[in-house]
Amino acid sequence: EAQVTQNPRYLITVTGKKLTVTCSQNMNHEYMSWYRQDPGLGLRQIYYSMNVEVTDKGDVPEGYKVSRKEKRNFPLILESPSPNQTSLYFCASRRGLAGYTGELFFGEGSRLTVL
Amino acid sequence: AQSVTQPDIHITVSEGASLELRCNYSYGATPYLFWYVQSPGQGLQLLLKYFSGDTLVQGIKGFEAEFKRSQSSFNLRKPSVHWSDAAEYFCAVVTNNDMRFGAGTRLTVKP
Questions:
Q1: Which of A81, B23, B41, B43 is the most buried (most CB within 10 A)?
Q2: pLDDT (tens digit, 9 = 90+) per residue, B54-71?
Q3: What is the model's pLDDT at position B1?
Q4: B6 to chain A: which residues are within 8 Å by CB?
Q5: Cβ contact (<8 Å) for A45 and B97?
Q6: Distances from the Cα of B48 to the Cαs of A99, B6, B59, B76, B103, in angstroms?
Q7: Which residues of A are less than 8 Å from B100 in CB distance?
């Protein structure tokens, strides 16, 4: 089954304790992206990756890091989480320019609470 | 800057009634437009998309949307709403290969 898998789905942590949210897709997609969803703000892009070893900032990158060492994985790293990073996070992927349709495929989301 | 506006934060309709969710975009060229639905506790699922051609597009679950260039709109419609349609709906536009989302419209369905 084609899917984007995120882990953990739920996490409560404390300020300053480093954490990683993993994301993996099995569709051989070149493009992957992270979004955060906050009430009244919709989804805002944090970082995206056009392909392996190619990453770039989205609209709200502060406080986050990413890496793309393999095509299927795109982890989101919070080096020193703060309460304003409490949010619902989504990973998404899509095809690259070859066969481009624009459609994003989303994971089920990771709800993060930072105390 | 490119943007997507969903003017209605929350809409309540009765089951069986018709539905229209509004979406306006700001983008110079012909955009790629999407509607996604998010059920509680779930990720986003694609309802329909518009790239070019026929301005009335059909999607899953009985939804349709109409692209109106003159009004910069891409409104989502359904003739008869079911209780299972209660969810949050997001309009999105692809610009420079990145997808930008509206703030979402939460749909409540009354029995």
A1: B23
A2: 899 999 999 999 999 999
A3: 63
A4: 42
A5: no
A6: 18, 16, 5, 9, 18
A7: 45
Extract the tokens encoding B81. 């709403």
Spell out the alpha helix ranges (H) of chain A.
none
Tell which wins on pLDDT, A103 or B105.
Answer: B105
Compute the distance between CA of residue B13 and CA of residue B83 in angstroms, rounded to an integer: 10
* B1 reaches A (C-beta below 8 A): no
Q: By the CB < 8 Å criterion, does A107 face chain B?
A: yes
Rounded Cα distance between A65 and A58, Å, is 11
Instruction: Collect all residues with Cβ–Cβ distance below 8 Å to A71 and sequence separation of at least 6.
Output: A28, A29, A30, A51, A52
Q: Out of A4, A42, A48, name the one closest to residue B103 (CB).
A: A42
Average pLDDT over every residue of A48-64: 94
* Distance between CA atoms of residues A40 and A45, nearest Å: 15
Maximum Cα–Cα distance across chain A:
43
**Cβ–Cβ < 8 Å for A89, A8:** no
- Write out pLDDT tens, residues A59-101: 999 999 999 999 999 999 999 999 999 999 999 999 887 666 7
Q: Contact at 8 Å (CB) between B49 and B33?
A: yes
